[in-house]
Amino acid sequence: MSWKVAVVEDDQRLARAVASGLREDGYKVRAAASAAEGLELAQEWNPDVVLLDLMLPDSDGPDLFGRFREITHAALVGMTAKSMLSDVVAGLRAGADDYVTKPFAMEELAARLHACCAAAGARAGSGCRSATC
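Above: the chain's sequence. Below: its structure in token form.
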């Protein structure tokens, strides 16, 4: 079984590119274009990982991690153009498992997801379920 990744990103071109790249790596991917859609997707689909843009039209900032933590146990990976150290630290302190700044290479994103898979698998005692692990 492959891991399920919810991509919450309002830039549809970027969301499609990320989804396509992740599917090539064996992930099951669904996308949402807003925080509200992402929260609904996370609750209904129960993804293993949520890639979360932190500058969405209906909500932004590190507080989004807390909102997602309330409804899912998925690993949370922030993706944003905010690359200052203080932004990264605020995201991690707010509950992100990892953080990637835009622009990023798909190889970097895949490596970060792989690390989240391995950590989640180790916590669950079952090993990573991803086709890429």
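Strands lie at 4-8, 28-32, 49-53, 55-56, 59-60, 75-80, 98-101.
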